[in-house]
Here is the input.
Amino acid sequence: AKVAGKNCFRFYSRAMDLAVERRVNLEHELRGAWERGELSLVYQPVYRLSDRTMVGAEALLRWNHPKHGQVAPSVFIDVAEQSGLIESLGPRVLHAACSEAVRWQQMLPGREPLTVAVNVSPRQLRGGGALAEVVASCLKETGLEAGRLHLELTETAVIGDEAHVGEELARLRETGVKVLLDDFGTGFSGLSHLRRVPVDGVKIDRSFIADILRDPDDLALTSAIIAMAHSLGITVIAEGVEKAGQYALLRERGCDQAQGYWLGSPMPGPEFLALLKEEGR
Ligand code: C2E
Ligand code: CA
Ligand code: CA
Ligand code: CA
Here is the structure.
């Protein structure tokens, strides 16, 4: 029994070692991935519901690993956050997205300027105004108008230390950028939370949007979020719109903007620019 127990222990510890080893490897390989050109941004178009005009894009990070190919963002973003790598990666992503948005404007000067949304991880929000400084210098270096930059923070990142986060958000908004609450509705913080956290917009999580055509509860919740946000002067964006029916229903309920596979998938910069030119015709 002793021997079996020992083997058993060895088996589990080996499996754990492998998981840890893979993580350590990923972390090691993620270090320097930007410099090697393995990381890039893709852009998913965001549309205004009332007239179906493209008003902006969300920048999403991709990692093309030399051995494993595309690594899921849910995996490598987590590695980047846990290891602290996000602190050097975050500003690069921000800078690249802002430069890209300036390029769109330069290529299509007559067009209504587009917004660019960048995801910010909670870890980037932790140091006394550090993110606001990064954002300010990024706007200065790229020349992007502050109001064109949207920063997306998950609802769960904002709950908890509200006084501290509130202060950080206030500093960010002083730079003129807009702050959006991402994955809204999943954090169970309740709509009343919106009164205390100074944000410009909420992005309704795609898990709510997925079922609005079939589930009256999800539709009721979505409608309530829209009404509540609007009464506070907050913009509402729906994510994960995969069907025409969802789009029509959201439009009918007064939702402001939407993104999703039905409207457009995330795509590399040059492809996004081509789409933009196409739509401008
Ligand atoms: P997110 O911010 O909620 O981004 C939206 C995710 O939904 C993206 O997944 C996008 O590809 C996917 N999506 C878009 N339309 C649809 C749709 O119609 N249906 C469905 N089912 N999915 C749709 P992705 O690119 O895999 O990114 C996953 C998460 O990784 C993001 O979720 C975000 O939290 C994080 N992430 C991505 N890029 C960055 C980054 O540069 N920085 C940080 N901190 N996090 C990032
Ligand atoms: Ca997002
Ligand atoms: Ca989201
Ligand atoms: Ca449901």
